[in-house]
C-alpha cells in the first residue's frame, strides 16, 4: 500500500468535515463536557488558507484516508520557545488504521515545523485514549502535563 501525503484542498471540505465528526465521535466517551448534538473543533477552511498552519491529508489510490494539521502558536513568556507547532485533526479511516498512515502524517507535520525553524511540537490526547497515546509515544512524543478537572 502506497500512502501519499499532501496539502488538503478547500474543495475537500466535505471529507474533512466527516473526519472531524469521526474525531468527535471517538472522543465523546472520554469527555462528558462536550455538548450534545453537532459540534465543531476546527475552522478547517481558515486553517487551509492560513500561512501559519498546514492541513495535510493522507491518500491511498487517490482516496483520502487520513488527516492532520499543524499550526504555529505563541509560547508562554516563561517557556524557552517563543513559538511552537501544535498538532491536531489527527484522523485515519478505521479500515486504514495500524498501517502507518498517522505516522506519515505526523512525520510530515514535524518536517513542516522544522522548515519554519520551530523547535517544539505539541499535541493533546485524552489520558484514557491508550491507542492514540501509544501512537504518539511511538512517534517520539512524551507526556508533559496532565490536565485534571472536577465537575461541581
What does this structure look like?
With 152 residues, this protein is an alpha+beta fold. It has one domain (4-138): 3-Layer(aba) Sandwich (Aminopeptidase). The chain has 4 helices and 5 strands. The chain has helices at residues 13-27, 44-49, 101-115, 130-138; strands at residues 4-7, 53-60, 63-74, 83-92, 121-123. It has a 5-stranded mixed beta sheet, with helices on both faces. β2 and β3 form a beta hairpin. The longest helix is centred in the N-terminal third of the chain and has 15 residues, at 13-27. The mean pLDDT is 96.
CATH architecture: 3-Layer(aba) Sandwich
Mean pLDDT: 96
- The CATH homologous superfamily name equals Gcn5-related N-acetyltransferase (GNAT)
Cα-based radius of gyration, to the nearest Å: 16 Å
- Calculate the terminal CA-CA distance, rounded to whole Å: 50 Å
Q: Which CATH first-tier class would you pick?
A: Alpha Beta
Counted by DSSP, the helix tally is: 4
How many E-type strands?
A: 5
The helix/strand series, from N terminus to C terminus, equals EHHEEEHEH
The helix content, as a percent range, equals 25-40%
Pfam families: Acetyltransf_1 (PF00583)
Domain N-acetyltransferase: 3-152
Protein name: Acetyltransferase (GNAT) family protein
GO molecular function: acyltransferase activity, transferring groups other than amino-acyl groups
Amino acid at each position: 500500500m502506497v500512502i501519499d501525503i499532501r496539502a488538503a484542498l478547500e474543495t475537500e471540505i466535505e471529507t474533512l468535515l466527516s473526519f472531524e465528526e469521526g474525531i468527535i465521535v471517538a472522543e465523546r466517551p472520554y469527555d462528558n463536557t462536550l455538548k450534545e448534538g453537532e459540534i465543531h473543533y476546527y475552522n478547517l477552511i481558515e486553517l487551509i488558507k492560513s500561512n501559519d498552519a498546514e492541513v495535510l491529508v493522507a491518500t491511498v489510490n487517490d482516496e483520502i484516508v487520513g488527516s492532520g494539521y499543524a499550526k504555529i502558536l505563541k509560547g508562554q513568556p516563561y517557556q524557552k520557545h517563543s513559538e511552537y507547532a501544535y498538532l491536531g485533526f489527527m484522523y485515519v479511516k478505521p479500515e486504514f488504521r495500524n498501517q502507518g498512515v498517522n505516522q506519515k502524517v505526523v512525520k510530515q507535520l514535524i518536517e513542516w515545523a522544522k522548515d519554519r525553524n520551530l523547535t517544539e511540537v505539541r499535541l493533546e490526547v485524552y489520558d484514557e485514549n491508550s491507542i492514540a497515546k501509544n501512537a504518539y509515544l511511538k512517534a517520539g512524543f512524551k507526556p508533559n502535563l496532565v490536565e485534571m478537572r472536577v465537575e461541581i
